[in-house]
Amino acid sequence: MTLQTRPGHSNRPDPAAHIKLVVSDMDGTLLTPQKQVTHHTLNAITALRHAGVPVCLVSSRPASGIEMYLEALKLDTPYGALNGGSIFNPDRSLRSQLTLPTDIVQEALGLLQEHNIDAWLFRGHEWVITNAASPYVEPESRAIKQTPNIVPTFKTMLAGVGKITASSSNYDAITQQEAEIGALLKGRACVAQSAPFYLDITPPNANKGYALHQLADFYGIAPHEVACLGDMNNDLPMFKAAGMAIAMGQATQTVKDHAHFVTAANTAEGWSKAVTEYILPRAAKAD
């Protein structure tokens, strides 16, 4: 069996005995590296539905990048975009939205420019970039099925920003900026990697832990009755908020250290295995 319990952490309670809601990351977790959903994952979602356990998605993706999967997944549940800064109802109407103050946007963009790191802005449903030649623009456009708005400068785009994404093929630079910008903007913004090549900057409360609380509240469920699955550092806030946290097999070591359990990688049906091994047995006790 590829699943395993994590090393014990004395400051973390035992995993919840009863699970009534699942909140899941998408890229690196629910989806394969090819951005596909396997039939095992679909079967696991169906099994959860039959057990009366809804599945909600929370992603650093914009809303369009989540909505493109809802029909295939047969999900009619609320979801969180932009790392949880934008929460949407099942009918896709906006439930709540958090944005960055313009001075924070300007400061963050200046810091990234100093290190020659490309920046993108997400404003509502709009994706704004200045460098169309960035190596990650085309794959991101394919992944979220959205075309960016290319502008010469961000000067008139600073208001209403829900997320800044920094992208670079220099993974060490992204990790370094997570620490440096995180320290400079501490308390004023949430700074976390969503991929080895992406660094997300969102409003201080716009994180997946906030989203988990909002989604649990939608169903009248306590956070300790929620199981979550993820693989990157931007998943840590929901790991801390949930009653059960499950890390993917290829997750960062930090994420694994904060999980109750580690499942297989997203290349080896880790999501469906986690549901079968850990969540469904506890879902049967949810009533």
Automatic annotation (TrEMBL):
Xref: Pfam families: Hydrolase_3 (PF08282)
InterPro entries reported for this sequence: Cof (IPR000150), HAD-like_sf (IPR036412), HAD-SF_hydro_IIB (IPR006379), HAD_sf (IPR023214)
CDD domains cross-referenced by the UniProt entry: HAD_Pase
GO molecular function: magnesium ion binding; phosphatase activity
Protein keywords: Hydrolase
Glycosyltransferase keyword on record: no
PANTHER family: HAD SUPERFAMILY HYDROLASE-LIKE, TYPE 3 (PTHR10000:SF8), PHOSPHOSERINE PHOSPHATASE (PTHR10000)
Name of the molecule in the record: Hydrolase
Organism: Acetobacter orientalis
